[in-house]
Hints:
The protein has a domain at about 45-75 and about 100-180 and about 190-250: Vaccinia Virus protein VP39 (Rossmann fold, 3-Layer(aba) Sandwich), CATH 3.40.50. Helix content is about 30%, strand content about 15%. It has helices at about 65-90, 105-115, 130-135, 150-160, 200, 220-230, and strands at about 20, 35-40, 120-125, 140-145, 165-170, 210-215, 235-240, 245-250. Helix 3 links the parallel strand 3 and strand 4. About 40% of the residues are buried. S-adenosylmethionine (SAM) binds next to strand 4. S-adenosylmethionine binds near residues 100, 151, 173 and 174.
Amino acid sequence: MASLAIRPPRPAPRQYARHGPESAPAPAGSRARPAVGCGTIIRPRAKEARLASPRDPAIPPASDLDPALRARLESLFDEGHEIWSRFDIEVRQKEWHPFVPADYHRVLETLLELRGPGLRFLEWGSATGVITITADLLGYEACGIEIDPALVAIARDLAARHVSNARFAEGSFLPAGYRWRPADRDARLGSIGEGRSGYLELGHPLEDFDLVFGYPWEGEAPVMHDVMNRYGALDARFLRYGPDDSAHIHPVKRPGG
Ligand SMILES: C[S@@+](CC[C@H](N)C(=O)[O-])C[C@H]1O[C@@H](n2cnc3c(N)ncnc32)[C@H](O)[C@@H]1O
């Protein structure tokens, strides 16, 4: 059997377009968004990546992960890569779409470091569901919100096939009534889609979650921080994934607080 050690991000197959601040702009005619796009390759982990200290010292590091769980995760990641590959060819190469995946092994490392008993996890823009399902398999109570119904269907199917309790709501991660009103910058939402808020379907408001994951396109991180700071629980954390495979942990800070 191939080694199942948690490994650094594998070089991306050519069709695995990744997004990042320095990458190509979206094709003309795509939704208005900042001048960024897909196409950057996976880079080694950024030196400046900031990770929170493990909450529970008894949790084993990634290399000590239970072999059966490790095998389940590798199988999930492999299928996630296959789905992404098809999605890229069948959807993204025809029309711009905001879904590009984070590096699953990189996110796994961070989820392992942050996990603890009874934590509730939410993925904003859960796409094919791989990260939310990973969180569920690691013991989080895990939910995802995704605005594209086709991706929600894929995520639910993937969760069922990997015997995961992860739950997915179709809708927006923006809370109902939320308005992005920056005093000092462009108020457009970039590629963040607008639609019915997904929290009602989940049965939990944003403040019920301990850890919230987001992978913003350039220019969208301030919106995510604003939502988290206004609506997140005071002891929650926002895990922001960056295009250089960095993982940043942010505490909640109330505006003006
Ligand atoms: C950059 S991808 C990240 C996918 C996944 N979280 C990951 O890291 O692999 C962003 C995802 O957010 C979704 N999305 C965009 N606007 C959204 C919104 N308002 N609410 C929920 N999902 C949204 C897109 O359809 C896309 O699947």
